[in-house]
């Protein structure tokens, strides 16, 4: 984990997008939390990696024996514990932990889940019990591709292979069997420019979107406002400002 990344998420302090107004059309029926429900029961011990402020795990994760939800940001975990007060019946414990340094015993969890976060497949394999399941939803290289091309940068923009293929290969090499990779295409329609801007300022879709361009001694965002407005003009539809998302789902058995 880079120090700048840690600082960024400490400053954000939550992973709540409820104030951003948008609608979603999805090309297939793959649903992260429904997939978890298929493989879990009331006795399952689940590890959720990269849980943010617990917004999703609290509201959408199926009931289980125990869910341990982790994030590397102590501020996010602080937010998660506050959010938990609204869900006193949920058997969830929030813990500060880096995904790449899992500090739980081997063969412990029935299911490990990871949504929109980095993973270490070998460490996950070790902490899963026999026949345990790994369930992943990730953001792929070609996510928001028109936007990334316009700005000539972004998450995984210059990577040689897609994130999904890298994760698949790492999961396979870790020893998992019965690995299923599913592409997920969805179209998000943002109600206003401010809604789309709020997304871009909060997420890593475009790297360093609001930082200074020190080489020119001017604010980069003054320059990039023109690019942003160009994207909005070219992608405004009757439904809103369109953003094509390219995600992936992976289900793997130990």
What do these coordinates show?
There is one protein chain. The strands form 2 sheets. Strands 1, 2, 3, 4, 5, 6, 7, 10 and 11 form a 9-stranded mixed β-sheet that branches. This protein has a two-stranded antiparallel sheet with strand order 8-9. The chain contains 9 helices and 11 strands. It has a single domain (3-253), classed as Rossmann fold (3-Layer(aba) Sandwich). α6 (145-151) runs antiparallel to α9. The radius of gyration is 19 Å and the shape is globular. α4 links the parallel β3 (66-71) and β4 (92-96). With 254 residues, the chain is an alpha/beta fold. Helix content is 34%, strand content 29%. The two termini are 26 Å apart.
């Amino acid at each position: 984990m880079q120090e700048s990344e840690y600082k960024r998420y400490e400053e954000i302090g939550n992973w709540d997008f409820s104030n951003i107004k948008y609608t979603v059309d999805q090309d297939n029926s793959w649903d992260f939390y429904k997939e978890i429900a298929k493989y879990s029961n009331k006795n399952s011990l689940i590890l959720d990696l990269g849980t943010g402020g617990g917004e999703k795990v609290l509201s959408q994760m199926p009931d289980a024996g125990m869910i341990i939800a982790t994030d590397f940001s102590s501020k996010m975990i602080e937010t998660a514990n506050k959010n938990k007060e609204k869900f006193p019946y949920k058997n969830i414990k929030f813990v500060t932990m880096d995904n790449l340094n899992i500090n739980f015993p081997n063969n412990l969890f029935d299911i490990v889940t990871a949504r929109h976060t980095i993973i270490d497949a070998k460490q996950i394999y070790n902490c899963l019990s026999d026949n345990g399941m790994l369930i992943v939803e990730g953001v792929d290289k070609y996510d928001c591709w028109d936007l990334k091309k316009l700005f000539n940068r972004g998450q995984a923009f210059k990577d040689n292979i897609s994130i999904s293929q890298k994760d698949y290969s790492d999961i396979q090499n870790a020893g998992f069997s019965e690995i299923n990779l599913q592409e997920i295409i969805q179209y998000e329609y943002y109600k206003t420019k401010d809604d789309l801007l709020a997304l871009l300022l909060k997420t890593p879709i475009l790297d360093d979107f609001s930082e200074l361009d020190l080489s020119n001694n001017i604010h980069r965002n003054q320059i990039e406002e023109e690019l942003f407005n160009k994207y909005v003009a070219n992608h405004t539809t009757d439904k809103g400002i369109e953003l094509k998302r390219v995600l992936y789902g992976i289900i793997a058995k130990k």
